[in-house]
Structure of Response regulator:
Amino acid sequence: MRILVVEDNHELAAWLGKALKQANYAVDIAHDGEDAGHLLRVAEYAVVILDLSLPKIDGMTLLKRLRQDGNKVPVIILTANASLDGRVAGLDGGADDYLAKPFEIAELEARIRALVRRGHDRATPQIAIGDLLFDGGTRQFTLAGETLILTPREHAVLEHLVLKVGTTVAKATLSESVFGFDDAADASAIEIYVHRVRKKLEGSSVQIATLRGLGYMLRHAG
């Protein structure tokens, strides 16, 4: 799952990027509204974390342009302005959530998970496919009742496929959700991680099917 952090404070942006990567997200960082606008035009994100006080193009202007262009990506505003008027202005401008600085990373992660569930129309955080269970509240996988141990990239692959269960995910789309712009990955890298996840699902009632020329689909093996 890929997240865009838009924050002009380089130290805070680096801290956020590191924390979110440790939580198995792919992360891109922009330090001004102009760069963020470019990234949002060329890549698809699960969530945008947006500071309002940005150089070149301020966060509120960027948000309004995003919505005017029809981009519905969930946006969490981060700002030092915790006033009621500030929160109302952000939400009326098209934001989905609002978090005042300073904040705890655990709360930000919980808000990200809630927005992702909402975006996939999941009333419950749990998704079951055969004997594979994904808990959207903790973002943990269990297989036949046992915790499924995955590397961050493997986790990203399986999470994206679970959230799109029963539908075909193009290889390019899956790759974009797993790798950020700063990640070194060639065209075949996603195939390696899909293969590794398949190995860990062997013997279970769920499989990753390859639809030649189309992409991948997670489905019940039976």
